[in-house]
Amino acid sequence: MRPVECENLRITYRKGKTVAVDGLSFTVDSGDIYIFIGPDGAGKSSTFKAVCGVLRYDSGRLLTFGVDPNDDRAFEPVKEKISFMPQGLGQNLYKKLSVEENVDFFADLYGVNRKERERRKELLLKTTGLWEFRDRPAGKLSGGMMQKLSLCCILIHKPELLVLDEPTTGVDPVSRREIWRLLYSFNREGQTVLLSTSYMDEAERGTELLLMKSGKSIVSGSYDEVVSTTSPVFVVKAKEIYKVYRELWKITNTPRLKGDIVRVVVPQNKLSDFKALQERLGFSAEPVDPDLEDLFVERVGLRRVELPPLFKPAVSVPEEAVVVDRVVKKFGNFTAVDGVSFRVKRGEIFGLLGPNGAGKTTLIKTILGLYRPTSGRILVAGKPVGRDVKKLIGYTSQKFSLYHDLTVFENLIYWGNVYGISQNTVRSIVFQVAPIFELNRFLNLLVSELPLGIKQRVALLSALLHSPPILFLDEPTSGVDPVERDVFWQVIRELSKEFGVTVLVTTHYMDEAEYCDRVLLMNRGKAVAVGAPRRLKEELRETLGNAYLIYTDSPFETEEFLKERGFKTALFGRKVKVYSKEPVTENLLRELGVPFRALKPSRITMEDVFVFRVLENV
Amino acid sequence: MFSLKRILSVVKKEIKELLRDRISLITVFAVPLSMMLVFGYGLKLEIKHVPLGVLDFSKSYLSREVVSKLTSNGEYFYVKHYFSSERELDRALTFGDVRGALVFPFNFEKEFKKGHAAFQLLVDGTFPYRAEVIKNYVNAIVSLENLKIAKRRGVELPVSVEPRYWFNESLNQDYVVAVGTLAVVLAIAPAVFSALLIVKEKESGSIYNVYVSSIGKFEYLTGKLLSGFIVSIFNLAVLLSILLFLFQVPLKGSLLLLVFSSLMFTAVSTAFGLLLSVFFSSQAAAFIGTVILTVVPSILYTGYLTPISSMGREALIVSHLIPTFYYMRLLKNIYFKAAPFSYLVPDLLTLLAFFTLLFGLNYLLFKKRER
Q: What domain range includes position A244?
């Protein structure tokens, strides 16, 4: 019997006024690692809750292990076979109970007998590395450890189907890889996994994937089947990359500027235009395998944003716009920021990258003068932060500093007034900018009614009204879809490159490093690495070598095999990523006797940088 | 079928969580304690030490005599101001400087000598209860004087009253308030605690464990109910000790019956809170909602401050729908009247019925899903 069969599923909220899931069909086979990918609000959580019988669906056909989850009585016995982990770090844990007590309680919930419980508990806690922390309260674990404990808890009764709602969101890359490894090993023992994520780069870690947007499926199938665009994808390199980028917009709505390259999907009927442009501007174009983002972008289409010069700051700041010197911030005996130093140059996009709880927000708040540093020195625009410096700063906090019960327009007027801008000036700015930001039809809506991407734009606009020369943005792109995210980064880039605005931005998406001039990787309050993204990856490539992907039917054995022979490796679903200074060829693999199906060259990613730099420091 | 083990594991978890959370501990144990102390010590129903003003146009011996009779006892009234004009009096009453004023006309003494004199009593009516009491005090004192004068003039009154108070011989208002406070606090504290029991899991997200696991509704709810009940037993013990040893309200009936009916009421109150917990989805809303739904009826409709018999028909019906009303009656019957068990049975059965109803609704309305 199939774990999940779903046809034409429809789920609505507020008596049908909000449609969360709209005609979704998919099938999860036994032994799958089925991944739902999509931005916040796509309908992933609603679907999962319906599958587990926690949320009543409106219409369609849904069977979990052959039983309709809407049928309370009939579905109750099916619950023995499934496990559900809700979204959010450690959401289902009891924070005051110890690691062991949490597992015990779950065992009791499912009526697992004592002997079996002790056996499974030891096994699970040992494989997750939590055994030595078994007396620690769950609330005192790091985000990654909490997620691992959640997994232990829901696995105690040996469910056949694991339903995991964003188990890796906000988790540090090291723990993320460990969580995936756990999932693979459970999957190998026959457990089926249904999981969601908002990270596009996690797509290829499953056996099946479904890309979701606005309650609908965009594509579904196995990664290699699905991730193929009808048109070729190119990586474009050129000296004057920004000029090329602008010209490419005239051909297609898919170019994305990532550092010093542009990634673009060129439609078949535009290939000749592309060739002509290439000859005219003299750039190199290397065809590459499409990834999920290419697919998303091709299906949905990006939007070009060009800012009017009214955001050009009137005041200029010193060459060293932000100086952070050995800053420490402690709360009681907890050190949130531990001796971090960096300098942001005028007009630079500087990224603070790290998982939830790394100390990014604390650091930004300390720089802004909202927290007093325990020690260290901070200069913004050449001065310690005070009243006059604050006028030079634009800031959006995590979750955005907007009032939910005011309309977009009222919010903007309010923020303008806070910065001492007259109502008429704000009005004229808004009328000029609203069409560019595509805010026209939202201006009179309450902020609480807005989709996440629009909220993000409004928050950004509200921080820009007084044309600040320095901008601080805390997790502006969390949960936003790739199209919205691209709009956001276009604005940031224009501000930085055209108007000389200095931007300091935090994110937990490792792949967003590409959009920054320089990044600082943070983990547990400490700086792991700092530099230009390309540089950081290049440096890692020099120490580790090139990356390859080995496709195999027995990933664990393959990985074990390679490890024994001294290779650095990582598991990606049914694939093994291997790093080697010597070229890895099919012949070499055959010589070594590694079981494999195919071999492809891969790339060193920012996640690799993070993982290896963190492990180095341990 | 249900398993006792699962029920107990829910109880164990709740108690552990409570014991490790300082803020919850404080709210659970300190709030009822302080309510008991604040209400017990602070709630005084008697009107005493009322500031009066006097505007005496007669400037006579008799007017001074009346004023001195009213204030000589020192307990009820004292003269704060002597006014020289109506305007002054007006001001003082308006600003709340005095709560009442005596106005003696020019010919007060002359009229008295003729046989009948009247003076005016002005009372601040913004607080009707107090105004009523002031009027009654003044009337009583004046009547007493009238009686004496009548006797002196040789008139004997045909009927007189000899009052004697039963159950609370010294008419000690503090005793009644203290015992009533126990009922009010027991209506509030266990309900508030158990109202948070399910809501807090909804808020944190751990409720999904219950939704998705095979634990039954009955097991889960019973576990929650028991943990609320156990915690409240400790509270009950503390509150009863305060009543008996700190306020030293003499218990005339059986301690066993007192404890038994209090336990029953605690169970009702816990079940009520748990029922609210099924409806609310945030702890803040659950807290405020439960406080409003328990405090207001318990104080107004149970005979805590005003006797039920003096209420209107509608209010009387409302009273009978509130469990606290029956417990209040039980308490007073046991505490002051030493009523025998047989006399208490109907009220105890009513509490049992309330409990069954509330827990039954809990079971029916709690769904193992978000929606």
A: 233-289
Q: Give the integer Cα–Cα distance in Å for B202 and B207.
A: 5
Report d(CA A367, CA A397) in Å as an integer: 13
Residue in B20, B211, B215 nearest the CB of A54: B211
Residue numbers of B between 6 and 35 with CB closer than 8 Å to A: 6, 9-10, 13, 16-17, 20-21
Residue B308 has pLDDT above 80, yes or no: no
pLDDT on residue B44: 66
In a domain, residue B124? The reply is yes
Q: What is the pLDDT of residue B3?
A: 87
- How far apart are the C-alpha atoms of B200 and B209, rounded to whole Å? 13
pLDDT confidence band for A541 (50 / 70 / 90): very high
Domain end marker among B127, B152, B177: B152
Domain tally, chain B: 2
Our CA-based measurement puts residue A460 at a distance from the nearest CA of chain B, in whole angstroms, of 30
Which of B5, B208, B215 is the closest to A84 by Cβ? B208
Confidence of residue B349 (pLDDT cuts 50, 70, 90): very high
CATH number of the domain to which A156 belongs: 3.40.50.300
- Are B10 and B97 in a shared domain? no
Token readout for B197 is 């029991």
Alpha helices in A469-551 (DSSP H): 482-497, 533-544
Domain residue limits at B109 = 50-152
CATH code assigned at A274: 3.30.70
Q: Is B102 on the interface with A (CB under 8 A)?
A: no
**Confidence at B45, pLDDT banded by 50, 70, 90:** low
- ipTM tops 0.85: no
Torsion of CA A91, A95, A101, A102, to 10 degrees: 0
Q: In the predicted model, what is the mean pLDDT of chain A?
A: 90
